[in-house]
Specification:
221 residues; globular; single chain; Urease accessory protein UreF; disordered C terminus; mainly alpha; 9 helices
Length: 221
């Protein structure tokens, strides 16, 4: 089934707003710090130096960050926007700051999220966006990029499941693109890595989308 023209326009607008590379992409090819405060289960793998280590990084990202941290955060931000729950959105923002799994890219995530929020400010009648930005601007919230992404999905009434899939595929593609030049990867190798890293995404989406058949969720206005 093809998207309606209105949905295509909204999708393109949202994509422009959240088109920045994943904040963790800047760490591709650089050695990660060995922070003993991070549990071994969530510590990122060593810097990407070849195809094998890139594949390992992509597996780590999906297993330790994308599915258990980012998908649920996007879903909750989407929910809070739908209900106009600013206080709950800020509480979620502050709880995420306590999660050690976001530490390797916290500063970059805040920078990307704030930049994206600023792009939303010219839109009229978006009080939640403005008030969230004000909380971020005065230091009462962080403006994590995943929360802003969830707000954008709600703002444009985009299907949650489709939005999560787009986020995952965009993040993986960004990681591979970042490494492709330095590692001199062939197009076929990049395609293979992408397919391997995004296979069976539907299974990972069942919990964030509510389980069961993971219906095509839309915000009705």
């Amino acid at each position: 089934m093809f998207q309606s023209e209105e949905m295509q326009v909204a999708s393109q607008a949202a994509e422009r707003l959240v088109g920045d590379p994943h904040p963790l992409a800047v760490r591709i090819g650089a050695p990660f710090s060995t922070d003993r405060g991070l549990a071994n289960a969530v510590a990122p793998p060593p810097g990407v130096v070849d195809v094998a280590s890139l594949a390992g990084f992509l597996r780590w990202y999906r297993r330790e960050l994308l599915v258990p941290v980012e998908f649920p955060a996007i879903r909750r931000a989407w929910d809070h926007h739908a209900r106009y729950e600013l206080r709950e959105l800020i509480d979620l923002d502050l709880r995420l700051a306590q999660d050690p799994r976001v530490r390797p890219f916290a500063a970059a995530s805040r920078a990307v999220g704030r930049s994206q929020l600023r792009r939303l400010l010219p839109m009229r009648d978006q009080r939640l966006v403005r008030r969230y930005y004000e909380a971020v601007d005065c230091g009462r919230a962080n403006g994590w990029h995943v929360l802003v992404y969830g707000v954008v999905l709600g703002l444009f009434s985009l299907p949650l499941r489709q939005g999560l899939q787009h986020y995952a595929r965009q993040a993986v593609a960004g990681f591979i693109e970042r490494a492709a030049g330095p590692l001199r990867l062939r197009v076929a190798t990049c395609d293979r890595l992408f397919e391997e890293a995004t296979v069976d995404l539907g299974t990972d989406l069942e919990a964030p989308c509510g389980g069961g058949r993971a219906p095509n969720l839309l915000i009705c206005r």
